[in-house]
Write a structure and sequence with these properties.
With 299 residues, this protein is α+β, with helices and mostly antiparallel strands. It has a single domain, classed as Electron Transport, Fmn-binding Protein, Chain A (Pnp Oxidase, Chain A). Helices cover 15% and strands 42% of the residues. It has 6 helices and 17 strands. The strands form 3 sheets. Strands 9, 10, 11, 12, 13, 14, 15 and 16 form an 8-stranded antiparallel beta sheet that branches. The chain has a 7-stranded antiparallel beta sheet with strand order 2-1-5-6-7-4-3. β12 and β13 form a beta hairpin. α2 crosses α6. 41% of the residues are buried.
């Protein structure tokens, strides 16, 4: 298990101190470990989806991408090693990063059926069948703000369509973002990368302009890994999935946190590049039951 000093860097500590939750963060941080416990290994082998986040300088920023496969395509192959069979398509912004020895990656395995999620961050090693991640940090998150989807099916013959590139969101993409109940965010710092989840009732994310997104940062586990990373390095990648059609909307840009006097926190994300891929994953999930923890979005 890591020491608290290993879990948090200066960016996370600065946010924890500003909000006044250092003690709570220290308590939660003691659950972060290096190894993959048997219960975590069993969880991984049941998942058909893995979200991976990393910096990709050749693709112009930090990105989050979905990887999908038959359960077992992600599995623990050692006390600290997670192996992935397959990988991104050649045109994925993370294709080069996920084929490069030593890339810092953040991964998130999320199971809407059980409202469980697991994060594993570490360094990448290419393998003949895909890649492996040597874990630096392994930990679970509570089910807060995670929508429940009871079942999924793999759609036979569903293949990714041609990706659409842009520098700003179209009207349809803005509407898609504002109808979302879930998105994923990848962030980085000098020692690693992280992939995390944000959820809420539809409307919790706003797109006030073609190049700006904003969302309220709901109370969480007090760790402030994402906001801490952003305090140190504002680069970020967002991933919005269509849980029915499998479409993936990926954005890269920079994010900044605004702290209001009443304690509310709001994140503003400036879009620099857009990648919209129809049918990116072959999974079709059932309709969601929204988390009872979700606040009502502003009118």
């Amino acid at each position: 298990m890591e020491t608290i000093k290993d879990v948090y860097h200066a960016g996370s500590r600065a946010v924890q101190d500003r909000v006044g939750v250092r003690g709570a963060a220290d308590h939660v941080g003691r659950s972060v470990g290096h190894g993959i416990k048997p219960v975590a290994a069993a969880f991984l082998e049941l998942q058909p989806l893995l979200v991976v986040g990393a910096a990709a300088p050749e693709a112009g920023g930090v990105w989050a991408s979905p990887l999908a496969g038959t359960p077992g395509f992600v599995r623990a192959t050692g006390p600290r090693r997670m192996s992935v069979t397959g990988g991104p398509r050649p045109d994925d912004p993370l294709a080069t990063a996920l084929a490069t020895e030593g890339t810092a990656v953040g991964t998130l395995a999320l199971d809407p059926r059980t409202r469980r999620r697991m994060r594993l961050n570490g360094r990448l090693r290419p393998t003949p069948r895909g890649f492996a991640v040597e874990a630096d940090r392994v930990f679970a998150n509570c089910p807060k703000y995670l929508q429940k989807r009871d079942a999924y099916e793999t759609v036979a013959g569903r293949e990714p369509g041609a990706s659409r590139h842009g520098r700003a969101l179209t009207d349809d993409q803005r509407a898609f973002v504002e109808a979302a109940d879930t998105f994923f965010i990848a962030t980085v710092h000098e020692d690693g990368a992280d992939a995390s989840h944000r959820g809420g009732n539809p409307g919790f994310v706003r797109a006030p302009s073609p190049t700006e997104l904003t969302w309220r940062d709901y109370p969480g586990n007090a760790m402030f890994l994402t906001l801490g990373n952003l305090a140190a390095d504002p680069r970020a990648g967002l991933l919005f999935l269509d849980w029915t059609t499998g479409a993936a909307l990926r954005l890269t840009g920079e994010a900044h946190t605004e702290f209001a006097p009443d304690g509310e926190r709001r994140v503003r994300f400036t879009v620099t590049r857009v990648l919209d891929t129809p049918r990116a994953v072959p999974l079709r999930w059932s309709a969601p039951a929204y988390s009872p923890a979700n606040p009502s979005p502003p009118g």
